[in-house]
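Quiz preparation item.
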C-alpha cells in the first residue's frame, strides 16, 4: 500500500474502545493509522457517505478443504472469499484429508501467504476418529489456535475428558460440533413442509440439545474453556445461558443462516439449503436472536462450508451438508440484527471482531493512532446480487444464490495490503 489513504467521512466502530463516532481516518504509506498531513497531495481520498470503518473481522469457523478437496476450496480461494467478505482473520477447521492432526499441516496453514491471517484449528482426536486424543501438545506448539473435531462430535465422554483436561493445561479452547450422531440417526432436515413433501429423514432437535448437555457436563468436570459451534435450537440457547449463570467457562456462536432462515422457508428439494445442524423453526430463530442480544451467544461465525456444484445438484437427500457464508455474512447479520433494531452497530461489530479474537486470545485490531491498520470497510447500503460473477469462493452452495442483498464489504486493509476495491 504505497499510496496513503484518507477516508474523509465514515462511521468509526471500535468496540475495544467503546467507540461509535463519525469522523475521518488516515492510513499512511506504511499501513499505520496516523494523523493526516496538512496537504493531501499524493493521497488516495475516499469520500463515501454512510461508509463504516471497523477493526478487521474474524471468523472462528471456516472450512477451506485444503488438503483433500481443493476442487471445492483451497487456502487461497477461501482467503480471497474471506477478504472479499470483510474478514482479515479466519480459523480453519481440521476436517481435511488427511485430517489436520499433525504439526506439519498446522505449520503449512500458518505459513501460507494468503489474503487473510489463517489460524488453523487442530483435531481433538487422532484422524478425527473420536477414539484417542491427538498429540495436543505438539499441535499447540506448532501454532494450533484451538482444538475441535468439527464435522463430528467427540461422543466418547472419556476421550472428551482427556482432551479437555489437556487443552486446559495448554490454555486452548475446545470447540465442539454438538450433534449426537446416534440421535441424528441419518436425519437431514427438521420437520417442516419440505421434509413432509419429499419424505426426508428428520434430524431431531434433541440430537443437538443432548449433545450440548453432554458437553456442558464435561466442561463442569474439567473446567476447560468450551465453545459450542453453530447453535440452531432454542433449548440449546437456554442451556448455554444457564451454564453461564452457573459460572461455567462456556461460549457459543450463531451463524448468519441460522438467524436469518428457518426450516419452514426452505423452497423445495434444494441441496443449497442443507446444513448441519439444519435450519430450525421460527421459535428457534427468535431464541438465537435473543441470545445474541443478551450476550448468551457472544459471536457470529459463518461455518463457511464449500462444496462443488455437482455434489449439491442432486437434491436435498444426496447433497452433502454445508453452505458457503463468508461473502454474505456481514450484510445478512447487519440486516437481521442491526437494521431491524435488535442490536446496536457497536455490538454487531464486537460480535465479528472483538469477541472472536478474545475467544482465541489474539491481539485486538483497533482504530488507534500509531497502530498498524487492520480494517474492514463496509457499506450497509450497497446493493448487489449473489452470483458466480460476484463471489470469490470456488463454490456456489448458498441459499442466497441469485438473490439481491443490501450491504457489502468493500475492502480490507491488513499488514499494509489493500484487498478489494476502495470506493471513490
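Solution:
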Amino acid at each position: 500500500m504505497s499510496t496513503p489513504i484518507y477516508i474523509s467521512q465514515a462511521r468509526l466502530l471500535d468496540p475495544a474502545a467503546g467507540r461509535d463516532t463519525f469522523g475521518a481516518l488516515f492510513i499512511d504509506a506504511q499501513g499505520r493509522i496516523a494523523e493526516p498531513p496538512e496537504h493531501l497531495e499524493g493521497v488516495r481520498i475516499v469520500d463515501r457517505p454512510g461508509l463504516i470503518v471497523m477493526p478487521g473481522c474474524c471468523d472462528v469457523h471456516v472450512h477451506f478443504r485444503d488438503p483433500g478437496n481443493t476442487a471445492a476450496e483451497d487456502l487461497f480461494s477461501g482467503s480471497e472469499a474471506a477478504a472479499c467478505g470483510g474478514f482479515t482473520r479466519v480459523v480453519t477447521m481440521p476436517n481435511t484429508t488427511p485430517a489436520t492432526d499433525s504439526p506439519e499441516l498446522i505449520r503449512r496453514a500458518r505459513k501460507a501467504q494468503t489474503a487473510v491471517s489463517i489460524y488453523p484449528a487442530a483435531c481433538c482426536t487422532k484422524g478425527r476418529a473420536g477414539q484417542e486424543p491427538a498429540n495436543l501438545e505438539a499441535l499447540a506448539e506448532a501454532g494450533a489456535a484451538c482444538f475441535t473435531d468439527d464435522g463430528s462430535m467427540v461422543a466418547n465422554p472419556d476421550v472428551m475428558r482427556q482432551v479437555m483436561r489437556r487443552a486446559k493445561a495448554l490454555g486452548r479452547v475446545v470447540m465442539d460440533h454438538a450433534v449426537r450422531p446416534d440421535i441424528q440417526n441419518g436425519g437431514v432436515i427438521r420437520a417442516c413442509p419440505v421434509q413432509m413433501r419429499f419424505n426426508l429423514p428428520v434430524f431431531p432437535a434433541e440430537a443437538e440439545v443432548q449433545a450440548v448437555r453432554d458437553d456442558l457436563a464435561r466442561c463442569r468436570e474439567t473446567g476447560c474453556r468450551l465453545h459450542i459451534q453453530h447453535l440452531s435450537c432454542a433449548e440449546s440457547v437456554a442451556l448455554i445461558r444457564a451454564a453461564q449463570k452457573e459460572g461455567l467457562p462456556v461460549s457459543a456462536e450463531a451463524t448468519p443462516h441460522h438467524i436469518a432462515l428457518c426450516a419452514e422457508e426452505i423452497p423445495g428439494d434444494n441441496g443449497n439449503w442443507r446444513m448441519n445442524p439444519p435450519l430450525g423453526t421460527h421459535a428457534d430463530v427468535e431464541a438465537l436472536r435473543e441470545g445474541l442480544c443478551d450476550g448468551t451467544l457472544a459471536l457470529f461465525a459463518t461455518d463457511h462450508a464449500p462444496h462443488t456444484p455437482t455434489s449439491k445438484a442432486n437434491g436435498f437427500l444426496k447433497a452433502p451438508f454445508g453452505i458457503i457464508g463468508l461473502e454474505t455474512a456481514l450484510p445478512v447479520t447487519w440486516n437481521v440484527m442491526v437494521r431491524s433494531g435488535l442490536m446496536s452497530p457497536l455490538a454487531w461489530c464486537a460480535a465479528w471482531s472483538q469477541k472472536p479474537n478474545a475467544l482465541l486470545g489474539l491481539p485486538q485490531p483497533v482504530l488507534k493512532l500509531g497502530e498498524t491498520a487492520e480494517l474492514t470497510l463496509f457499506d450497509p447500503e450497497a446493493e448487489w446480487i449473489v452470483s458466480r460473477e460476484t463471489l470469490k469462493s470456488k463454490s456456489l452452495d448458498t441459499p442466497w444464490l441469485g438473490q439481491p442483498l443490501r450491504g457489502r464489504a468493500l475492502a480490507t486493509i491488513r499488514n499494509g495490503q489493500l484487498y478489494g476495491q476502495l470506493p471513490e
